[in-house]
């Protein structure tokens, strides 16, 4: 009797939503931490490889002694064969060992020796190869993620530059600076004395900086770094501060010309700013002489910045430093 499988209904197992979601999130977490898991597995496998190899080495003398006994028996057979050949030439009827039998014994002995060594060190070698595969897999995942993050960063930077260009074309460079660094207009009231000696009240529109960091890489050079921590490179004299910043800018431009690259964290370190994870990737790369940004600038000569003008004129105790980094310099090599 034949069964029609087309009419057979296979019951469907319904998985609860909570269980399905838990399995999905667990899979996602494993994928997220897969480089760390592979790295730890590789390290554990490497330790296990060393342990297994040490244990196998302790058994090695017995295996070597067994192999030596096998080879000694074969050598004894060869000696007896040689003696038999000599006696047969003298007319003696002593049995002669066949050369093929000796060769078969040698092949069997070599196969046994190879098998014993594979059984002895095979587990440690296999575990070592698996550990190496874990290391390579961890590196491959991290490299793919780094490449993806780098592509996303470059795409965001390109879109941001296009946005700034449109702002400059539509509203002007001053609006671009105001939007980028968070400047806001405020009314400054004051008094002036005219030629007749009379006091008059005046109102002037000035640009002030919002609280917080104005951009991703820009920093404010002032007496304190953050949270009341003083900057060791700060002087009470604005003239000395300006000269210090100019000297640092000239130094890093010379370093860029001689070494070929400068990381942003190196500049941060010399100016007393805390190091950042982004500063270890972005910086400046010396390329062709025709490159428009083939130099390092702290923004000290940005005359469109009112705070910079006041700092140069010794009327301001802080200055906003904006660094014209080339981007992730590893990508520019």
Describe this protein with a few key phrases.
333 residues, alpha+beta, 2 domains, three-stranded antiparallel beta sheet, 13% strand
Explain this structure.
The protein has 333 residues and is α+β, with helices and mostly antiparallel strands. It folds into 2 domains: 17-164, no CATH class; 215-332, no CATH class. Helix content is 57%, strand content 13%. It is built from 8 helices and 9 strands. The chain has helices at 17-32, 34-58, 60-89, 99-171, 173-181, 238-259, 264-271, 306-312; strands at 183-193, 199-209, 219-221, 224-226, 229-230, 261-263, 282-285, 319-321, 327-328. The strands form 4 sheets. Strands 6-7-9 form a 3-stranded antiparallel β-sheet. A two-stranded antiparallel ribbon has the order 1-2. Helix 2 runs antiparallel to helix 4. The two termini are 74 Å apart.
